[in-house]
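= Protein in question =
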Amino acid sequence: MNKQTEEIKNDSTKTKISNIIPITNYDITQNKYSIEELEKNIDNFDSKTLLHYQKLDAEFCVKHILDLDIDSGSEDSYIFDKCYILHKQKHITEKDFDEAFKKYYKK
């Protein structure tokens, strides 16, 4: 183990936590990270890459991935709506997603 990372056990999966160097988009394609560590580095990631390579929870997806402004007009942009997120994160149920949405947007 090098000085830059500390390995921990999380649900029988090795998770790497960066102590010194920020986690990059490339790093999340190679390693699994905790939700806490992903949130600390959220500005370094592309949403598509996050959805494809990391196992996220419903709350994280609603908070950081869901795009309620889907009418951006750009052909290059992905539509990060509920259907797309649930398609990429198959372990998240529609019920869990809806509950996280209500919790986060209960204004």
About this structure: Residues 1-14 have pLDDT under 50 and may be disordered. The CA atoms of residues 12 and 32 lie 12 Å apart. Residues 56-107 form one domain.
